[in-house]
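Supplementary Methods, section 5.1.

A reviewer requested that the exact input to the structure prediction be made available. We therefore reproduce it here, unchanged from the version used in the analyses.
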Amino acid sequence: VSMFKKNYDHLTKEMYFGNYKEATRGNPNYFLTYGNGKSAARVQDHLRPNGAHRWHNYIKTP
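The structure derived from this sequence is encoded token-by-token as follows.
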């Protein structure tokens, strides 16, 4: 079990699309991955997403 999804660019087409149908469960709008990777944050108290690409800790001063 992995907490992180595999980047599409790091998989063979056969591996990615071979599992695509099962992973999306028939929902064509199901989000799987970004091709270019996205931001990550260390898990800590008071952390929340600030938009699609940033994180904000509402206890700490930026």
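The chain has a mean pLDDT of 74. These observations are discussed further in the main text.
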